[in-house]
Write a structure and sequence with these properties.
mainly alpha
Amino acid sequence: MTSRTLQRHLKHDNTSFQEEIRRFKAALATSLLSQKERPISRVAYQLGFQDVSAFHKAFKRWTGQTPGEFQKSLL
């Protein structure tokens, strides 16, 4: 698929490439954080964040809770 075709499909679905990346990262983050033995810093690194605090802010924006709160809610 060409980039232009992808752009048209995304526009048809009222979304953007950046929005789809955000959704993917949020879903992957929650999946990885569900594995309680995996440290938050490791998840941040796996998602491409160089700073754990930036991951915390992004995760809170995505889900409304911090990564630690999310893990505690799984108990």
